Amino acid sequence: MIQGFKAFITRGNVVDLAVGVVIGAAFTAIVNALVNSIINPLIAAIFGQSDLAQVATWTLNDGGTPDDPSDDAILSFGAVLDAALNFLLVAAAIYFLVVLPLNKLAERRKKDEPAPGESVSPTEVELLVEIRDAILAGKTADAAAPEEPKAP
Fold this sequence. Notes:
152 residues; mainly alpha; two-stranded antiparallel ribbon
């Protein structure tokens, strides 16, 4: 059981996945900082608010006092807009900075590979090996053949 676990952990896919998750989390933190520190305040300023979550709110009931509105039931459409904008920017950044370059790299690698039905020409080393083998086979065939008598 431990050997199976060790094989699972040391498999390349698991390590690649772990690295991807860690880098994705770090990248998400960068994009979140960009969205929360630059983009959201700009959008909120357009609507005359200090925070994007305050842009579109709707109070359902006045449960609190004017001094303490914490008991109010408030729908915050700005918070949903904030989360949607954050998601779109993270997705766009990952697509344009990770997915698109990797797809281009895969296309370049595929150009160098032959098509599935296409014959592959041998490399220079393979041709030299074939020539060597043919020469060696010719020498051994000459040595094994009985000598023919010479004509008088």
